[in-house]
C-alpha cells in the first residue's frame, strides 16, 4: 500500500509462482496485480503517491490564497482535502469492488474468459503467440532439484524486502523534506521518498540475505 511501484514489483513476482501452480493465466495475474496495487496506493491514507498528490494540492491552495480567493468550505490543509476526495475516487473504488465481485461470483468476461479457459483446459499460461521476456529470469529463480521446500524461505525474504523498501522510503523522504525545509509530516515524508532507490536498496539487500 505504501508505494504503487513497490506493490506491483513485489506482488507480481511473488505471486507468479502461486498463480502458475493454480493454472491462473498470466493475463489474469497481470490484471489482478494492476487492479490491486495502484487503486490501493491511490486511496491509502499514507503512500508515496498520496504524499506527492498532497503536495500538488497544497501548491494550488497556496496559489488561491495568494491570489486572494476566498476558500469558503475548503480546508487549507491539503491532506484533509485529499481525505475528502476519497469518496469521489470512483476508479479505484469500483476496481477494488470489481475484484471482490469476480472472486465471489467466479465469473470472467470477454478476453479474460478466453484466457482463463485456455489456462485451465489446455494448461497454457500464455498465448501461443505471446512473447514472454522473462523465461530465463524465471528459471533462475526456481530452486535446485532436491532442495527442501520450506515456507519460510519465501515468506522471510518477502517480509524483509517490504520492511526495507518502506524504511528506505521513510529515510529518503525525511532527508529530502529536511533539505527542503518542510514539516516532517507523513505526507511530506512519503511524498518526497525516492521509490526507485528504495526498491533498489530493498531488492539488493534482500538478495544478499536470501
Automatic annotation (TrEMBL):
The keyword Electron transport does not apply. Keywords: Cell membrane, Membrane, Transmembrane, Transmembrane helix. The chain crosses the membrane at residues 90-109, 151-171. It is a multi-pass membrane protein. GO terms for cellular component: plasma membrane. Residues 41-209 form the Na+/H+ antiporter NhaC-like C-terminal domain. InterPro entries: Na/H_Antiport_NhaC-like_C. It is found in: Cell membrane. It holds the Pfam family Na_H_antiporter. The keyword Transmembrane applies. PANTHER family: NA+/H+ ANTIPORTER-RELATED, NA+_H+ ANTIPORTER NHAC-LIKE C-TERMINAL DOMAIN-CONTAINING PROTEIN. This is Na+/H+ antiporter NhaC-like C-terminal domain-containing protein. The lineage of its organism: Eukaryota, Rhodophyta, Stylonematophyceae, Stylonematales, Stylonemataceae.
Amino acid at each position: 500500500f505504501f508505494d504503487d511501484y513497490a506493490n506491483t514489483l513485489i506482488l507480481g513476482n511473488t505471486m507468479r509462482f502461486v498463480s502458475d501452480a493454480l493454472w491462473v493465466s498470466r493475463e489474469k495475474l497481470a490484471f489482478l496485480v494492476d487492479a490491486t496495487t495502484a487503486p490501493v496506493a491511490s486511496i491509502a491514507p499514507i503512500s508515496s503517491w498520496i504524499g506527492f498528490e498532497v503536495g500538488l494540492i497544497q501548491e494550488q491552495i497556496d496559489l488561491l490564497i495568494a491570489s486572494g480567493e476566498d476558500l469558503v468550505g475548503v480546508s487549507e490543509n491539503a491532506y484533509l482535502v485529499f481525505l475528502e476526495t476519497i469518496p469521489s475516487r470512483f476508479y479505484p473504488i469500483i476496481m477494488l469492488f470489481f475484484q471482490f465481485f469476480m472472486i465471489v461470483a467466479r465469473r470472467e468476461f470477454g478476453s479474460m474468459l478466453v484466457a482463463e479457459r485456455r489456462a485451465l483446459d489446455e494448461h497454457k499460461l500464455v498465448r501461443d503467440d505471446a512473447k514472454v521476456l522473462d523465461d530465463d529470469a524465471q528459471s533462475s529463480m526456481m530452486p535446485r532439484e532436491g532442495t527442501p521446500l520450506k515456507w519460510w524461505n519465501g515468506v522471510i525474504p518477502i517480509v524483509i524486502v517490504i520492511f526495507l523498501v518502506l524504511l528506505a522510503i521513510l529515510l529518503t523522504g525525511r532527508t529530502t523534506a529536511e533539505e527542503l525545509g518542510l514539516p516532517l509530516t507523513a505526507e511530506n515524508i512519503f511524498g518526497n521518498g525516492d521509490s526507485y532507490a528504495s526498491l533498489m536498496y530493498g531488492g539488493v539487500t534482500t538478495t544478499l540475505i536470501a
